[in-house]
Amino acid sequence: MNIFFNEQERVFRLDTPGSTYLIALADQAGFPAHMYYGRRIPDDNMRYLLRLNPNMPAFADSGDQLAYLGELPTEYPGHGLGDYRESCLRVETAQGYRACNLTYRSHEIYGGKPGLEGLPATRGGEEDCATLELVCADEALGLEVHLYYTAFEKLDAVCRSAKIVNRGGEALKLTAALSACLDMDNKDFDIITLHGSWAYERMIQRRKLGWGKQGASSTWGISSHQMQPFLALLEHDANQERGQVYAMNLVYSGNFLAQAEMTQQENVRAVIGIHPEGFGWKLNPGEAFQTPEAVLVYSSHGLEGMTHTFHDLYRKHLIREPWRNKPRPSLVNNWEATYFNFDKEKLLDIARTAAGRGIEMLVLDDGWFGCRDTDDNSLGDWVVNEKKLPGGLRYLAEQINAMGMKFGLWVEPEMVCPNSNLYRAHPDYALQVPGRKPMEARHQLVLDISRPEVRECVYTQLKAVLSSANIEYVKWDMNRTLTDVASFCLEADRQGELFHRYVLGVYEMQERLLADFPNLLLENCCSGGGRFDPGMLYYSPQIWTSDNTDAIDRLRIQEGTALIYPLSTMGAHVAACPSHTNGRVTPFETRGLVSLPGCFGYELDLTQLTEEELAMIPGQLENYKKYGSVFHDGDYYRIASYGENQEYDAVLAVSKDKKTAVLDYIHVMSRQRRRTVLLPLRGLDGETLYRSSETGEIRSGAAWMYGGMVMPRMTGDFTGKLIVLEAV
Ligand code: GLA
User: Fold this and answer.
1) Those residues with Cβ within 8 angstroms of residue 644's Cβ, 6 or more apart along the chain or in another chain
2) Which residues contact 285 (CB under 8 A, 6 or more apart)?
3) Which of 176, 203, 476, 483 has its CB 3.0 to 4.6 Å from that of 439, i.e. a possible disulfide?
4) What is the rounded CA–CA span in Å between residue 691 and residue 29?
5) HEC secondary structure over 648-667
6) Minimal CA–CA distance to 343: which of 299, 390, 305, 378?
7) What are the residue numbers of the active site?
8) Burial of residue 472, with CB atoms counted within 10 A of its CB: 0-12 exposed, 13-18 middle, 19 or more buried
9) Which residue's CA is the nearest one to ligand 1's atom 11?
10) pTM above 0.90?
C-alpha cells in the first residue's frame, strides 16, 4: 500500500515512485489542508510544512477566522467564508444563501480504484494503486463531500475527484463543483497551456506565471479546439530534461476551467474541473453529484518526465481492451479524396488501389446516408443512400473484405439537420431556447443528447447500420459547438445541468456502442481535434488529431498533442497536395514521415497518385509495421521542435527494452549551414552499442546521446529522414 495515515500527526501521505503528496488535518476542526506535493520524501514527521501562523489561536477561539481560512492551503476550497481565491465548491441553499466550508469527518484507505459512475476515468487494480477516500462535511448545509485520491504504485500520478452528497433535508444547488485544487508556494513558475483554433489545435504556450488568474477554459460545450483541459506549472528554468513540473489534465470532454492563480502572499492556487460558467446542479436530499477525474502528474525531471507519465498512464490505465496494445490498422479515408462526390465504383477503385499496396482498411466518410450530397441535409437520417451505394453497406463491405481489407464508417450521431426526416418529425429533439430560432452551424443543430429518448432514437438507427454489414471501425464525428443550450425536458432550476448532462449522454452512447460491438475500433473526431481529451480516449483509443492535414502545420499540432497524449492516439494521414488546408506542396515521402508516428493512414485519392508515389506506399506501410510499435508503445522524446527553431523537427521513440530507437527527422526550412545539424539523442542505454540505419556506424548509446547524432546534409525544404538505431 502506498497511502498511509499518521494518526499522531493527523497527516495523510500518498507515495508514488518519485513523488509524495501530503494532506494535513488542520486545527481541531480538521480542515483538509494541503501540505506538500513534490519529490518523494521518506520522513514521517512532516507537519512542520503546514507553517501555520504560530500566533494564530485555534480556529474556534480565534478573533480572526477570516485570516485563517484566507491563507490556509486547502485541498477542496469552499467559498464565502474568507477564502477569496478560486473555490472548488460553491453551494446555494433554497433561500439563496451562499457559503460553504469543509472539515474532516472520516476516511478510508483501500487498494485499487473505484470507477466513476457514468464518467470516464483511469482504471487500476490493487496491484496498481491505492485510494484515499477522505470524507468531509459542511454541517450547516448538511453536505457531505467525498474526496478521492488515487496514487499509482509505478507512475508519478495522483488522480482526484469529488462526490458531493446532500445529506440535509432541503434541496441545494451546486454552482461550482471542480475536481481538484493544488495550493503551493510559487517556485518561480512558468505556466504551459495549449491553445489553438480549428485546424491549429494544441499549440504550446509557455509564459511566466503572473499575479491573478490565468489558464485555459472552454465554454463551447466540448473540450474545444481553442484550449486543452490541461495546465502545467514548471520552474522557470525547467526544460525537456530538467526541473520540476506540476501538471493537471481533466478526464472530461465538455466545458472546463484549468486555472492557476498567484495570490497576495505569492502562493499559487491551481484548480481544474467543470467550468462554473453556465453550471448549476440541483441536489435534492439524498442525491449525489460526481465530478470528473483530474489527473495530477509530478515530474522532477522536466517536461519529458511529465509526458512519459501521461503516456504510460493513458496507455495502461485509460485506453480499453481490446485495443490497448493492439497495432492500429493502416487505413485510407475517402474524405479529402472525394468529399461528397463518390459512388460505389469510385470507392471500390480506391479500395483496389489501396489493397494492392497493402493498406488494411477503407473508411467511408461523410455522405453515405439520407440524400447527403452536400452538407446541408440528412444528419439524423442514418439510412444508407442506395442510389450512391446500391446493395447498401453490406455489399460494399463484402467487396472490400474480399480484397483483404477491413471496412470502416463515419457517423455524426449528436447532430440533426433542419432538412432531415428526424427534425421534421421531432423538432424538439434539437437544443433550443423556446421563442428563439436556434443557431445553425454547418446547416446543423445539436441534438438534446441529455434526453434518453433522443439517445435511443439515434442509437437504434446506428446499431441497425452497424449490424447491417461487417463494419470494424467507426469514426464518431461532432462538427459544431453547443449554442441554445436549453432542454424541453428540464425544469427551470435544472437548465444549468444541461451542458454536463449532454456530455454524460455522449459517454453513455459510446459505452453502449462498445458494449454492443466490443471489438469495434472507435475513432473520435470533432471537426478535427475539437474533442481531443482523456474523456474521449476512455472510449476511443485514437482520435482524429486535426482537419489540418498539411505535413508542416501538423508538426506543431502533433508536438502539442504529444506533450500529453500518446502517439498511438493521434490519427495522422498522408493527404493530398497541394494541401487542402493551406495549399502547401510537400513531397509524398515527407508526408509519410510526418504521419508515421501516429495512427497511420491516407486521406487522398489513391487513384490519382503518380506511379512513383504509389510505389512509395508499400515502403511506408512496412515502416509502420516495423516501427509503429516503437512509436506507439515506446518512450517519446522531443529532440527538436520546428516550432521553436524554425528550421527542423525531430521526434525520437525508444522501445521500452531500449533495443530499438527510431528518429523521425524533418528538415523543414533549408538554410545555409557550414556545419551539419547535431542532435544529442536521449533515452538510450549508455553502454549498449547501436547501429545506425543511415550510416552503418556502430556507437554506444552514450556517444549517440552525449556526443550526438550528425544529421545528413539535406538541401531543399520539406525533406526528411527516418533513422533507426538497433542494438547490436
Ligand atoms: C469533419 C471531420 C472530417 C470529415 C468531415 C466530414 O470536419 O473532421 O475529417 O469527416 O467532418 O463532414
Assistant:
1) none
2) 142, 166, 167, 168, 169, 170, 171
3) 483
4) 64
5) EEEEEEECCCCCEEEEEEEE
6) 390
7) 477, 547
8) buried
9) 527
10) yes
